Amino acid sequence: MRPEDVNLVAIGQRRVAGLRRDEVARLAGISQEYYIRLEQGRDHQPSDQVLRALARALRLGSDGVEYMHRLVRIQSGGVRLQDSEELAAAVDEGLRSMLAQWPSTPAMIVDRNLGIRMSNESARSELPGRWEPGSNAALVVFGDDWKRCDLQWERSARTTAAALRYSSDPGDPELHDLVGVLSLRDATFRGLWGNHLAAPPVVTEVDLVTSDGEESSFTQQAFQVPGDRGLVLIVLHRGQLGQAARSA
Fold it and tell me: Which of 37, 53, 69, 161 has its CA 20 to 30 A from that of 103?
């Protein structure tokens, strides 16, 4: 955000285009000293009132607000509930059965770091790249095979980078390794990650050249899996929803 975006007058030389700390603090109605403590991580438990004020000052959307609240919960050391082994096994069995019953609809289950936990035969055979369990959706999307076949790759790249940041734990060593690999491999990823995009992959359009050489338009939808493991079901389907979105 620039000063003129929030009706502020830009005074003096600026090293960066965005708002200064004192400007953000003023817009949020808090002291600059307190805002600096928040930036530096010296205050781990800001009140909901302060978070709402910062969200208004930075004009965050609903996804940005939810992401900010989740980061605060992680930073403040909130207890994370774990699914029981029995519940996890029952959920996984149901998911495997469901994915297997979609022979012409690519579908997969990913974790917080977009690691692929499950995928059906349609995902593995139709989609470019390696959609096998143990692979990673972000590595696939930023890989050469997917880039060659995705007719709107820039859109997919933005969506994937935003979903990875939104769902992951910033303190997770596995995330750090993944981001390091992607940053070394791909300049586009470095730029997107540096922009701090954060949004869940709810509904988006994906236009691909599939393994049979045909151009296909999919509607990609994401659904939270019940439980506390941060799993998401991603389905790519052809149908009226995709046709309506393309004609709108």
Answer: 161
Q: How far apart are CA 150 and CA 156, in angstroms?
A: 8
Closest CA to 137 of 159, 155, 152: 159
**DSSP per-residue codes, 78-114:** PPPP---HHHHHHHHHHHHHHHHT-TTS-EEEE-TT-
User: Phi-psi region for residue 183, left (φ > 0), alpha (ψ -120 to 50) or beta?
Assistant: alpha
Q: How confident is the model at residue 207 (pLDDT cuts 50, 70, 90)?
A: very high
Determine the residue type at 141: V
At 209, is the secondary structure helix, strand, or coil?
strand
Domains of the chain: 3-75 (1.10.260), 85-247 (3.30.450.180)
> Which residue is associated with the tokens 């990823």?
189
Count the neighbouring beta carbons within 10 Å of the beta carbon of residue 127: 24
Task: Give tens-digit pLDDT for 108-132.
Answer: 999 999 999 999 999 999 999 999 9
Distance CA 52, CA 59 (A): 10
Please state the φ and ψ torsions of residue 205, each to the nearest 5 degrees: -100, 140
Give the HSE-up count for residue 39: Cα atoms under 13 Å, Cβ half-sphere: 11
Going by C-alpha positions, the residue among 130, 138, 199 that lies closest to residue 174 is 138
**Whole-model pTM above 0.70?**
yes
- Output the six-digit token pair for 144: 């050469």
Q: Which helix (H) or strand (E) holds 48?
A: helix 48-57
Burial class (CB in 10 A: 0-12, 13-18, 19+), 87: middle
